[in-house]
Amino acid sequence: MPPVLSAALRFVPAAALLLAAAPATDWSQVARPTAKGAYVFGNPAAPVKLVEYGSYTCSHCADFANESAPVLKGQMIRSGKVSLEYRHLIRDPADLGAAILARCAGPRGFGAAHAMIFATQATWLPKLGTYQQAHPDIDAKPLIAQARSYMDAAGLTAAMRARGLTPAKINACFADKAEVARITAMTGDAPVEVRSTPTFYINGELQPPAGWDKLEAVLRAKGAR
Description:
Layout: H1 3-21, E1 31-33, E2 39-41, E3 48-54, H2 59-79, E4 82-88, H3 93-104, H4 106-119, H5 121-134, H6 143-154, H7 156-162, H8 167-175, H9 177-188, E5 199-202, E6 205-206, H10 212-221
Parallel strand pairs: 3-4
Antiparallel strand pairs: 1-2, 2-4, 3-5, 5-6
């Protein structure tokens, strides 16, 4: 056998071993925007597709995000079996402000910002009422001005600056009319049966109101692992 061919054959098993040892994709670290502006966490080709209409000022949404994370994100989405599409259902100016800030982090930072906002909701949400009482004229301001004022008062603007967003970037995000329209359009485009947050669909089927424990059972019945 020619020496060159013999040497090449000796490297085939090693190459095969390297391919076999290549780590599987950690889909929990993937978040991509859709054409309509929602964000999909995980494998876009996942066989089980969970859609959530949520709000950052919704306490039940925060409960779901925080309770589900170890299994939904840590196992089901990570494995590629489940994807989660998060659609904004804007309830109030503060919710809009939080959505603008989360999305301001871009596709690479949205997942972490999204999780942080829900994880710290119990800390920042009460500050909104305090601010509103101290500024009874807040409702007279334009919507975006209200959203920004609430985020500054809640400390979320500072939290996003600590995550690397510059003041100029944050200002630009609040001034981005196209992005704001994209966010609010999700509320207008929601199906008529979506009347509260969170509302879930699994593979296109509307789910009755339920906590994570019941939703987990439905996901597993659909093949989530």
